[in-house]
Design a protein that fits this description.
Helices cover 15% and strands 38% of the residues. By secondary structure, the chain is mainly β. The radius of gyration is 15 Å and the shape is elongated.
Length: 117
C-alpha cells in the first residue's frame, strides 16, 4: 500500500559536476529536468519498517539525455530506499552535459530525501 497524504518523497536535485572544477566555461555537467521527473512513491510499509533517509545518486547521462549508468554515492542505510532512488532518477529526463560547447557524456548528482510529510 502506498502512502497518499501522510508520507511523501521530496526530490531535491543538487546538480553538481563530479569533478572539482570545470575546465572551460563551455563545459557543464548533465542537469536534471525536474519537470520531467515523476515523484517517486514512498510505500507506507517502508516507513513502518524504519526505512527512510537521504540518498545521493550519480547518474551518467549520454548525449541524448538518457541515463546509461548510476551509482549510489551516499546511502540512506536502507537498501530498498537506495534502489528506489536509483530507479526514480533513471526514469527522469536530463539535459546532457557539454564539453567544449558540444553535448557530451557527463555525470549529474541528485539527492533524494525520503521524509514524513
Amino acid at each position: 500500500m502506498f502512502a497518499t497524504t501522510r508520507f511523501a518523497t521530496v526530490l531535491s536535485a543538487t546538480l553538481l559536476c563530479l569533478s572539482a572544477t570545470q575546465a572551460m566555461a563551455e563545459d557543464r555537467p548533465a542537469r536534471l529536468e525536474v519537470a520531467g521527473c515523476e515523484k517517486p512513491e514512498f510505500p507506507t510499509r517502508w516507513q513502518d519498517d524504519g526505512e527512510s533517509g537521504t540518498v545521493t545518486v550519480a547518474y551518467l547521462v549520454d548525449t541524448d539525455g538518457k541515463v546509461v549508468q548510476s551509482k549510489v554515492l551516499e546511502s540512506s542505510g536502507a537498501v530498498r530506499v537506495d534502489r528506489a532512488s536509483v530507479r526514480a532518477g533513471a526514469r527522469c529526463k536530463f539535459e546532457p552535459g557539454a564539453k567544449d560547447g558540444q553535448a557530451a557524456l557527463a555525470w549529474a548528482k541528485v539527492k533524494y530525501a525520503w521524509v514524513v510529510e
